[in-house]
TrEMBL record:
Domain Integral membrane bound transporter: 423-551
Name of the protein in its database record: Integral membrane bound transporter domain-containing protein
A Pfam family this chain is assigned to: FUSC_2
Annotated transmembrane regions: 26-46, 81-100, 106-124, 131-149, 161-182, 470-499, 505-522, 534-555
Protein location: Cell membrane
Keyword annotations of the record: Cell membrane, Membrane, Transmembrane, Transmembrane helix
Listed GO CC annotations: plasma membrane
Primary subcellular site in the record, as a coarse category: membrane
Its membrane topology: Multi-pass membrane protein
Organism whose genome encodes this protein: Protea cynaroides
Length: 817
């Protein structure tokens, strides 16, 4: 049976992807336009009794922009909840403070102090969402600064209520914009992404099979390059799906849409897990083709080629049936006869144990089997079960959250927010009392999380503020006599900045600053001449940014390069834990949790590296982006191999129930795995320790101060035999793999001829396990080389030996106990 494979060209796929992105972003932009139009209609043309209470229309616009950022209805509803929480943290305590102090008693210093103390309280809890913190800090600035500016004329009770009302109008407008003309639901967005992912996976599968069956390396590389382009699209789709799924209580946008989901009879489980289970074997197939030593592949004869084409056809059919991510839509299933035919195809595979060169092709077939199994048989846990597990773990989390409230990291972050906001208000009041709120709002509304780069965010916000202010002044100059048309001139700018937020040049921070700057000029009235207001606001914004950067430099400069090194160390540490969990007797749930944690850490590392590459260096050491990118690639590959290796071990366990001489195999594999773990974990632990140290110079200084001598020959340091992977010699690795393959072959030869079905499965699993171990050892060596290059980059005048550095770190820790 033959099948003609037809795949979309990369140009067609890229064009389709661009159109989809353009359409999605345009829809978001139009929703933002609608929300801002609602606010503008109420604040500019509403009845006097309403407009008098909405004293801060600029803050209503700002609230809209904070909430409607690629938002769905669930995101907007969650944003309303955050606005309510922010009002409880900002406006309500402010009312009590103003009532106790009295607006007439406020001075520049006491106003700045009150803002700083309130900001510290808001910033300290880790559980509070970043949007909630931003809205609350904006309310704090408006409350105290405007109370000081107006003095005794300030109504202690109505002033906080007007701030809260302005916030509420923005939040409600955001929800209405996501409701009309039809609700923009996260579940519908996820369903569409799942459909696109299924099509993407089917196209990639065809290209992978085409590459493996190629008669020359040129054809194989051509198919592989097309598949890699599709892989990038698949990764983006996967991330988009995961962002919308339920992760924590009150955080997932789909969780806020439960009433709509019930109405639409769309009961989600966890689409992110399902799509991830399909993505992992696809990644394994890509790795296998990259590792094929030559083409045509030796084991791919006409019989195997026919088998691969049949499997591809069945898997593509299955993917079409499971395109939808909603169980309610998946009423159609693949016929049972088709499933039996597929599994028989696997059983007819010749169970000849592979040589070292054949491992990649056997691993490819293993991944195809996993892909089919996951696409048909994956049963997701019921959402209620997940919710129950989260409820049970919530009690345990309360204590950890309470302890984390006073952690050093949280205190430093809260202190940064407090000082930067207080100084911005103080300097802003001294520069221009009437427009001083903008210096504080620049800091409060743009406060970054603990994991964001200071200099990059400040730079983008400064550029966005200037760009938006220039557009606003230009619009006022052209349309100064026509208020209605002047407001309408905002609409194209909102659409433009919605696309700007997704650009590398400006990002979310710069795009939001640009749109807010224009809104504050064109969407206002009674602020005086637009050019004077724009100039004053730009100056006040720069005062706020100056204070923000000054505090960061004085306390703890959070550069993206610094964050990248910290995240690298954490990722390698998680990799160590995952490597330690490799065992035949490990608990599956615990192992899966560690693998998911590693996936999260690798994803964070990738984002921080991208930020660091676009960050200005100033007087700091330049960021070694090439080295970090290589390390990220090795970590990503190890992450996938660990998951697929665990699959192989799980399938080998099933052989016990089929009558295999499990005891012999258990002893053999267990011994090999222990030796393998010792080789991997010692090297990974070494890399983690080295990346977590501040610097080589600091380590040497501490050793001298404590008079610590690291004498390797006296046996006070780890044995060098544990770190064989740190050397460039491949003999040890090849000897281990040869021994594993030889022992495995001897075992499979003992399986009786009547157990061909079982022998096929065991051969595939052992081959996959051998390939994964080989890949993990190679990538561990690559990580060690990358860490060495990184340390050498930071210490160009020193000779870097990872083993010696690790011994020094161990000696210091031993003395410190």
């Amino acid at each position: 049976m033959t099948k003609t494979t037809s795949t979309a060209s990369p140009t067609t796929t890229t064009t389709h992807e661009r159109r989809t992105k353009w359409r999605s972003r345009l829809i978001v932009a139009l929703r933002t336009v609608l929300a801002c139009s609602i606010v503008g209609s109420i604040t500019l043309y509403g009845p006097d009794i309403i407009t008098r209470q909405l004293a801060f229309p600029a803050y209503s616009y700002t609230t809209v922009i904070l909430i409607v950022t690629d938002a769905t209805l669930g995101d907007a509803m969650r944003g309303c909840y955050h606005a309510l929480c922010a009002t409880v943290q900002g406006a309500l305590p402010g009312l009590l403070s103003l009532w106790v102090i009295g607006p007439a008693r406020l001075t520049e210093s006491t106003t700045a102090l009150a803002v700083a103390l309130s900001a510290f309280v808001v910033a300290l809890p880790e559980s509070t969402h970043l949007i909630c913190k931003r809205i609350a800090m904006g309310q704090i600035v408006l409350l105290y600064v405007m109370a000081f500016v107006q003095g005794a004329e300030t109504d202690v009770f109505m002033h906080p209520l007007r701030v809260a009302a302005s916030t509420a109008v923005g939040a409600v407008a955001a929800v209405l914009a996501l409701l009309f003309p039809y609700p923009r639901l996260a579940c519908c967005k996820v369903k569409k992404k799942c459909n696109l992912f299924a099509e993407n996976a089917s196209e990639r599968l065809s290209l992978f099979v085409l590459a493996l069956c190629s008669q020359d390396k040129t054809s194989a590389l051509a198919s592989l390059s097309q598949a890699q382009l599709l892989s990038k699209t698949g990764s983006k789709l996967l991330q988009s799906i995961k962002l919308k799924q339920v992760i924590k209580p009150l955080e997932g946008s789909m969780q806020w849409e439960k009433p709509w989901n019930r109405f639409l009879q769309s009961h989600h489980n966890n689409p992110g897990e399902r799509v991830q289970s399909l993505e992992t074997p696809m990644r394994g197939m890509e790795i296998a083709i990259n590792c094929c030593p030559s083409f045509p592949v030796r084991v791919v004869d006409s019989e195997l080629k026919s088998l691969l084409q049949r499997l591809e056809e069945h898997i593509s059919l299955t993917l079409r049936h499971v395109k939808c991510s909603l169980p309610s839509d998946c009423s159609s299933t693949v016929p049972e006869t088709n499933r039996e035919e597929v599994y028989k195809s696997f059983h007819t595979f010749k169970a000849i144990f592979p040589t070292y060169e054949d491992l990649p092709s056997f691993f490819f077939i293993f991944c195809m089997k996993i892909l089919y199994h996951e696409s048909v048989m994956t049963q997701l846990n019921n959402l209620a079960t997940n919710t129950k597990e989260q409820t049970n773990s919530h009690k345990h989390d309360c204590l950890s959250r309470l302890m984390g409230l006073f952690s050093n990291e949280r205190l430093v972050f809260a202190l940064k927010c407090s000082l930067s906001l207080g100084l911005a208000v103080l300097f802003g009041l001294n520069f221009n009392k009437e427009d001083s709120i903008w210096s504080g709002l620049t800091v409060g509304l743009g406060i970054a999380s603990t994991g964001e780069a200071t200099f990059k965010v400040a730079n983008l916000r400064a550029q966005g503020t200037v760009l938006g202010s220039i557009y606003g002044v230009f619009g006022c100059f052209l349309l100064q006599r026509f208020m209605t048309i002047r407001f309408l001139s905002l609409l194209p700018w909102i659409i433009f900045t919605s696309f700007l937020r997704h650009s590398k040049m400006y990002g979310q921070a710069g795009g939001m600053a640009a749109i807010i700057a224009a809104l504050l000029i064109l969407g206002r009235k009674n602020y005086g001449p637009s050019n004077e207001f724009a100039f004053a606001r730009i100056m006040e914004s720069f005062i706020g940014l100056f204070c923000y950067i000054l505090v960061e430099i004085l306390l703890q400069p959070t550069r993206a390069a610094t964050l990248a090194k910290i995240q690298l160390s954490q990722t390698i540490g998680t990799l160590y834990e995952c490597s330690e969990s490799i065992s035949l007797n490990s608990i599956e749930k615990l192992k899966e949790n560690k693998q998911e944690e590693l996936r999260i850490q690798v994803s964070k590392l990738g984002k921080i590296i991208a930020e660091a590459e676009g960050e200005p260096n100033f007087w700091f050491l330049p960021f070694h982006g090439a080295c970090y990118s290589k390390l990220l690639g090795s970590l990503t590959k190890m992450m996938e191999l660990l998951v697929l290796g665990a699959h192989a071990i799980s399938l080998l366990r099933e052989s016990h129930g089929l009558g295999v001489a499990w005891k012999d195999l258990l002893e053999q594999i267990d011994g090999d795995l222990e030796l393998f773990k010792k080789m991997i974990c010692s090297s990974v632990d070494c890399c983690e320790a080295i990346t977590s140290m501040k610097s080589l110079e600091t380590l040497e200084k501490e050793l001298r101060m404590k008079n610590i001598c690291c004498d390797i020959e006296l046996g006070k340091s780890p044995s060098p035999d544990q770190f064989k992977l740190l050397s460039a010699n491949d003999d040890e690795m090849e000897m281990f793999l040869s021994s594993f393959l030889q022992n495995s072959k001897q075992f499979t030869d003992k399986i009786h001829a009547g157990e061909g079905e079982l022998k096929s499965q065991v051969v595939l699993c052992l081959s996959a396990l051998g390939f994964c171990m080989e890949g993990l050892m190679k990538e561990t060596r690559e990580i060690a080389m990358g860490v060495k290059e990184l340390v050498q980059w930071e210490n160009p005048s020193c000779h870097v030996n990872l083993y010696e550095i690790y011994c020094k770190i161990q000696s210091k820790e031993f003395v410190g106990r």
